[in-house]
Amino acid sequence: MDLRTIANAVSNCVNPNIIVRLQTSAGSTLGAAGRQQPQYNPAITGPAQIQALDNVDLKKIEGMNISGSVRAIYMKGNLAGVIRPDSKGGDLITVPAAPGVPALFVGLWLTAKVLESWPLWTKVVIVKQTP
Question: Backbone dihedral region of 107: left (phi > 0), alpha (psi from -120 to 50 degrees) or beta?
C-alpha cells in the first residue's frame, strides 16, 4: 500500500503539487585551482509537495547551522542530503516559475538533510540557494 499517494491526494487539495527538476549528486571532481566542483546527473522532472517544516523537523536540523529559506519537500524516489564520507553534496531541485507556483518557491534549492526515506518516496529539508 502506497500511503504517500493516499496522503498526497488529500494534501494536494490544499497545497497543489509542483513540477520540479531534480539533479542527483554524482560526487565531485577537482577543478584547475584544486577546488572541489560538484557534479550532477542529468535532470529529471516530477511532482513534488513543498511544505513548511514542523516542530519535530526543526529539532532534527537544530545543530546544522542552516539559515535562509528552508522548507520540506516530499518526492517520489530517493533523494540524498550531504554525504561527506562519499564526497557527495546534496541533490539540486529547481522550481521553475509557472502558473500557481508561489514566487517564494521559485529558484534553486539544495537538499540538506533526509528526514524520512521510504521505498517509494522521500522527505528532505531543502535550502534555497542565492544566485
Answer: left
Structural domains in the chain, sorted by start: 3-128 (2.40.10)
Q: How far is CA 77 from CA 32, 44, 108, 123, 129, in A?
A: 34, 11, 19, 10, 22
Q: Return the H-helix or E-strand segment holding 95.
A: strand 92-95
Instruction: Encode pLDDT of 19-70 as tens digits.
Output: 999 999 888 888 888 888 889 999 999 999 999 999 888 888 888 878 889 9
Closest to 87 measured CA to CA, from 36, 40, 35, 124: 36
- HSE value, Cβ hemisphere, 13 Å, CA-based, for 18: 24
Cell of 59: 529539532
Name the one residue in this structure whose C-alpha cell is 513543498: 50
Q: Is 53 helix (H, G, I), strand (E, B) or coil?
A: coil
